[in-house]
Amino acid sequence: MNKVIIDGQNLKIEDVVNVARNGYIVELSGEAKERIEKARALVDRFVEEGRVEYGITTGFGKFSDVVISKDDAKKLQRNLIVSHACGVGEEFDTEIVRAIMLLRANALSKGYSGVRISTVKTLIDMLNKGVHPVIYEKGSLGASGDLAPLSHMVLVMIGEGEAYYNGERLSGKEAMEKAGIDIIELVEKEGLALINGTQVMTAVGALTIYDAVNISKTADIVASMTVESLKGITDAYYHRVHEVRPQKGQIKCAKNLLTLLDGSSLTTKQGEIRVQDAYTLRCIPQIHGASKDAIEYVKRVVETEINSATDNPLIFEDEDRVISGGNFHGQPMALAMDFLGIALSELANVSERRIERLVNYQLNDLPPFLTKKGGLNSGFMIAQYSAAALVSENKVLAHPASVDSIPSSANQEDHVSMGTIAARKARNILYNVSRVLGIEYLASSQALHFRGDVKLGKGTQRAYNLIRKHIEPLNEDRVMYVDINKASSLITSGELVRTVENEVGEIL
């Protein structure tokens, strides 16, 4: 049985993907259990001693100075969840909900949150038995963590809210009953521990960064097909050009292009047909490479965040202390997700310009709009329109969310990150990029079809063969969105990258 063991310290992005998408079972490590129990024992002792500690025996936010009696402590935690469940908008996809649940359980397993081990196990049981809370996309400021969406997750744990179970949307209580999971009564600190963290923005970010790596590799493959179909000059990818400007992503991209195009009879050397290519061909390593470096940076931020304690207050049982800090603030993720959105947008920007070079007969020696009988047929004319529309939308979406802040909780929480908005925007941008690249994949394949029976590059030949298994060349106009969806599916599923890597080795 495939499983992921969580301990709060060693979770990988690939583990998140396996649980979220592939249904891996989740288990709690023995060391994590010990840490959870020790932290909980300290919380219980402080409650018995009547200590005044934020979120344990006080209200929340601006109500932090209101002391709550021991008799009202459980009601305080329940009230926190039901009052904070203010999410709106569309529902998160199941894979994101599963990632959220996993990341919250992993954060709790670090042993700094003060929850009972039975509460963590309830969350894990929900994951393993397929009880998926209905969590709405909008409503988080990204500090104090993802309060609203995480509250929707916890509602189901206490028998409220709604959840999906076996494909059926049910009340939270009914879903838990059908799955054979006992609902819980929250005790001191637990409500706050479950919702005060960055797990929603990080869950969206983890899945998006995983997909972004695939998109970055895809961009190199598809670009190489366009270079080939336009008889591009490969001297610009010569290794010494990039070694004298040693940006890592740039060097990787140039190497990828030369590997993919190796053996092609269509590519040229400078001076054979023309002295130099337009920037969208000549500067692919510089453009794609910068995005690769950005993606690598964001990946490091996400990998750190998925193994972090991001709630408040934190329990340091070895020092007998409870400290109220600010690890719930999503600024590290907010900036990273905005950066990711910008980096991905650029991959679509340059892709759309390459599409234009493919369809514009004034810029190449191919049939106008890549169709034999132009006028009677429109060919790829409107496909380029769609790519342009997606690129334009990305320019709006790429505006940083993290530069905005609206004070909340009567100005107690007077700077917030908007990190969850940044993460959702990055994911929307990623979708648009996959469609733009899908259109370029189609268009470059059509252009290569017009080049006739020629020898293609080692990698581009594999990419061309794959698309031809699913989509025939465009001999006359047909319904284009079907082809676009098929080509884009080959990209988002990872099949294109896997197919090419089987031939040329790992794409960097």
TrEMBL record:
User: What gene name is given for the protein in this entry?
Assistant: hutH
Which family, according to UniProt?
Answer: Belongs to the PAL/histidase family.
Q: Where in the cell is it found?
A: Cytoplasm
Q: Which organism is this entry from? A: Caloramator quimbayensis
Q: What pathway is this protein a component of?
A: Amino-acid degradation; L-histidine degradation into L-glutamate; N-formimidoyl-L-glutamate from L-histidine: step 1/3
Please spell out the taxonomic lineage of the organism that makes this protein.
Bacteria, Bacillati, Bacillota, Clostridia, Eubacteriales
Which residues get modified to 2,3-didehydroalanine (Ser)?
144
Q: Name one Pfam family in it.
A: Lyase_aromatic
What does the UniProt keyword field contain? Cytoplasm, Histidine metabolism, Lyase
State the name under which the record lists this protein.
Histidine ammonia-lyase
